[in-house]
Amino acid sequence: MTVQPREQWATRAGFLLAAIGSAVGLGNIWRFPAIAYDNGGGAFLLPYLIALLTAGIPLLIMEYIIGRKYRLSPPAALRRMARPAEAIGWWQVAISFVIATYYAVIIAWAVRYVGFSVGQQWGDDPEAFLFGDFLRAPDTPGFLDGFVPGVFWPLVVVWVVVLGVLAFGIRRGIERANKVFIPLLFVLFAALVIRALTLDGAATGLDALFTPDWSELGNGSVWVAAYGQIFFSLSIGFGIMVTYASYLGRRADLTGSAMVAGFANSSFEILAGIGVFATLGYLATASGVGVDEVAGAGIGLAFVAFPAVISEMPFGGFFGILFFSSLVIAGLSSLISIVQVVVSAVQDRTGMRRRTAVLGVGGLVALVSLVLFPTESGIYLLDASDHFINQYGIALAALVGLIVIVWVLRQLPSLQANADATSAVRLGHWWRICLGVITPVVLGWMMVDSLRTEFQENYEGYSTGFLLSAGWSVAIGALLVGVILSFMPWPAGGEDIDLDMESPADRKER
């Protein structure tokens, strides 16, 4: 097998922008504000900050170290630690494959809504327009039912852009794209926030978000929500940061980069909270209702509540273009990183050239996306897949990976030494305590709490048959694919990929 030289980021800034672009995604805009509002308002920021410092940044550092040390994708890097651990890496790749297929669809919706904003084409009932006129969703979910051209064609455009960026590689593709996407995203969103703060009722919305309810700090579910938000918003647990860090130079500062990326992501989440709730405060004031009656999260917030605001406010079309363009850019930067996990793993496994891997493997991801989701029941399939792959894919894979790396293989001391050798901020005992005790306990509790809720009632009232086929089967299937791929033999020389790029110290340690 021909060994391809490992690409590298051109600059540290390029890597940081790509890492921030991966972390800052759709969830920052439509998930964090609602989570904070429902869990103590301003008081939520305390457990949120603690979660960032005790779980988010420590996990981010660990993934950076693994990627930089082994200079390989998750399956190959974990294989270097111990051959059985390779299954965890392929599990993460399968999770990324699943997420990429439906994440692109939401971006396609946002693309259409940029155009819809110009004339407020959703009319007087944004909810009926979304589910009826645009998505043509039936009352009950099915599989591969009616085709929806209005979703299919923008989805094609999204995949052309993503695969085009990936085909140009790390420096000329991903790095250059994020040098445009991330500054543009912050400019657009800053303009959106400034406009939102000038609306009548903005102060009412901000009071609803930031007024602290300190009594909520005694509620365990609030702390679980804080750790869950940090975990899901930082793109950790499914191979992205290991993959991105594998393209770093040997002397890169890892701890400093993790702190910059972590705090940049959290800063954007708080900025998003300000923009979203200032806007919701305006809608509540204009409608003569409380903020709690218009507050929401996810698809309902982005594609129902915000169109309602746009229809009510002066120059609403411009506001809508800003908001949905922000969603498109945030989504694209994250989707690129997700697909790169799959591409990188296949390259390391086969020695395939980048453009061949992008067109072959990336094209397969796009094909699955285009077949399953531009259908009338696509939104139901998306909802169920997203819920189960997040709760029992990403979080569970991270928990298993952490237990194996920390407790079974006892890799933290060597990983810490690797980071301390090149980082400005040295890791202390706090890092090992966080990863060895705090984070596994919290992730374990999240699993128990989520499963208890799952078995009490069906998610969103869906039928058991639909949840088994579109939810549980997706989460369990990703795990099985990971295990099966780990048993497939590597081609001759495959285990020695990139050994020629190791330093003598690395070879000795290995």
TrEMBL record:
Pfam families associated with the record: SNF (PF00209)
> Where does it live in the cell?
Membrane
Q: Supply the alphabetized keyword list.
A: Membrane, Transmembrane, Transmembrane helix, Transport
Membrane-topology annotation of the record: Multi-pass membrane protein
Bilayer-crossing regions: 12-32, 44-66, 87-111, 151-170, 182-206, 226-248, 260-284, 321-346, 358-382, 388-409, 430-448, 468-488
**SUPFAM superfamilies named among the record's database cross-references:** SNF-like
Q: What is this protein called?
A: Sodium-dependent transporter
